[in-house]
Amino acid sequence: QFCTSNGFMAMINIPVWMFLSSYEKLRQKLLLQNTISSMVHPGRGIFGSDFGTTAFVIGKTYISGYAGSYRRLFEKQGEVESIEEREQAFLSHEGDCFAIYQVSREDPQNVRFMNLDWLKSHDIPVDRGNYDLIYTAPLGGSGTKMEQLEKLYEQFNLQKPVDFHSPSMSVSDIVAVKRDGMVSCHYCDSVGFTEIPGFLPDNPLKNAEMSMEDDYGMIDGIINNGPKEPTVAQLEQQARSGQPISLMDLAAAVHREDGDKRKSVVEQLHQQPKQESKKTAPKKSAEREL
Questions:
Q1: pTM of the model
Q2: CA dihedral of 261, 267, 272, 275, whole degrees rounded to 10
Q3: How many CB atoms lie within 10 A of CB 229?
Q4: Which of 42, 91, 173, 199 could form a disulfide with 188 if both were Cys (CB 3.0 to 4.6 A apart)?
Q5: What is the pLDDT of residues 240-266, one digit of tens each?
């Protein structure tokens, strides 16, 4: 409405209009009367744990045959990467990297911007539960660990990365550094950094997995959660309830369960004790094989 005849409009909003049936007429109008030049669908988490976002550019004039550019920046609808998943990705990263933790917004003990001397005078420990993981990235450059920490402090105050949207690094922040496979955590104090043993658990990968894994039989350092293959019984129940099912999924489930049954029978046969066959002495008249 506010564009010239050949103008364009850019906007960021929630993506409900892309899917809900109540916006079907709007979608038809956009596709028949306008031109979508480009669209990015970041999903959830761009502005925190929100309802999702989409960014797009629409031309007022319809251009027949125009091929726009479209990008979806997530794999699973409604997916928001949890702090545990981000921490696990940081700890399992093969190269050198770092992570920045800041006091959570609630800050029930009012420890934000407080140095270690103040914490000790009030008998308040540095507790992982009071912190949020806000940023991770590869660790570049050279120098000692303390030199790299000072460089990070300077960077996250004077030359913050474009994808860093939190307050500048300050007293009470924790910087976890992973170098040569070893992780150490350091408190940003009034002067310099002080190492904080035990800030991250001894086996953080296992603890993260225990809090997220939906199959405790697979505590193996890898988050195995994901879509499980449906069983025949589940698909039949879905069909009985009036929901559509895929015949390909049903055939695959039948084949998979038949294979499991065959494996089970073979395993039982292998587990049975072998019966020793009675040996009979050869007849004296039998010819020996040469």
A1: 0.50
A2: 110
A3: 9
A4: 173
A5: 666 666 666 777 777 777 766 655 555
